[in-house]
Every structure is written in C-alpha cells, then in structure tokens.
Specification:
This protein is α/β, with parallel strands linked by helices. It has three helices and nine strands. Strands 1-4-9-8-6 form a five-stranded mixed beta sheet, with no helix packed on it. The structure holds copper (II) ion.
Length: 174
C-alpha cells in the first residue's frame, strides 16, 4: 500500500519533468500525505492535474506588448503572455519543425468574447475532436494562424498535443 503511493508520486514528478517548466510549482506539494490517508479504501485521492496552472503566478505581471507569438520546438508560445489593444490581430507563427495548435480554453476567455482556435473551430470540444480526427487545426512548420481580438479581458489558450508539456499562453486585451 505504502509502496503504491510512493510510485504514484514518482510518476507525477517524472511527468512534470517532461514539461521542464512547471517544476517549481510541484515540488512544494504534499510530502506529508504518506502518513495518514488511504486507509479509507476506494480512491478519489484526486491528483487535480490542472492545479499546476495556478502556480505559474509570480510572473503574472510580465506582459509583453506584442502581436506576434512564436510556436517553437521547445514546446512554448513565445512570448507566453502578450498584451494587445482591442481590435488587434495576433499572429502565431510556427517557427520550428513540430506542428502545434492554438486553442482557446472555452472557460478562460472573457464573457461574450468570440471563441478562437486554429482550424476555425467554434468551441473547445470541437477543436479537440477535430484534432483527434486527423489533426484538424494543426499549424505545421512555417505556417501561421491569426485571430483578431475585439473583446477586452484575458484569454488563455493552449496547444492540444503539447498541453501536457505546459504549452499554454495568454493574451490580455486592453
Ligand atoms: Cu505544440
């Protein structure tokens, strides 16, 4: 039993290491959980995998005024956080050799804002399905995708195949 929880921790850590970026947030987490819990049989010891996103604070004040974002072979959007004025068109360029998507989190765009995703999908699920079905929305090497932002607020988006590697970005429209 004890053994099992150790293994689970290890797996999570090695998963984070692939991302390479989000490590700092994970290392402070629950060393203490190995004593008490898990006598209570049936699971639901949730790992809450999305929790790591919250920990990328600290750099939250660093917004770069830019309207071009590069998608790189390091599995990043660069700059990760951009600021533009309403009505601006943002261009994402794939400057590497690996394909990427630009896919908005439907729940993390301002109220009333238009959904956006490479491939022209009108919702996040459609974008995921489209990618799963023949890589719809993939932006290959050398290609780009653009979107015009009309509604002010902060948008968060990700790359479908590399979300697990921490490939997410933000656009703040002011
Ligand atoms: Cu990607």
């Amino acid at each position: 039993m004890r053994d099992e929880s150790t293994r689970r921790t290890f797996l999570r850590y090695s998963g984070a290491a692939v991302g390479g970026v989000a490590l700092a947030g994970c290392s402070t987490e629950t060393k203490s959980s190995d004593s008490s819990d898990s006598t209570d049989s049936g699971g639901s010891s949730d790992e809450t995998p999305t929790e790591t996103e919250a920990s990328d604070g600290g750099s939250d004040s660093e917004w770069t005024e830019a309207s071009t974002v590069e998608m790189t072979d390091q599995l990043t959007f660069a700059p990760k956080k951009i600021q533009v004025s309403a009505g601006s068109t943002v261009t994402w360029k794939n400057t590497g050799s690996i394909g990427h998507t630009v896919t908005a989190y439907e729940d993390e765009i301002p109220d009333g804002a238009a959904y956006f995703a490479s491939g022209g999908f009108d919702g996040e699920q459609a974008a995921k399905d489209g990618y799963g079905d023949g890589q719809g929305g993939n932006v290959p090497a050398g290609e780009s995708y653009e979107h015009t932002f009309e509604t002010k607020g902060t948008y968060k988006y990700y790359c479908i195949p590399h979300e697990m590697n921490g490939m997410v970005g933000y656009v703040k429209v002011v």
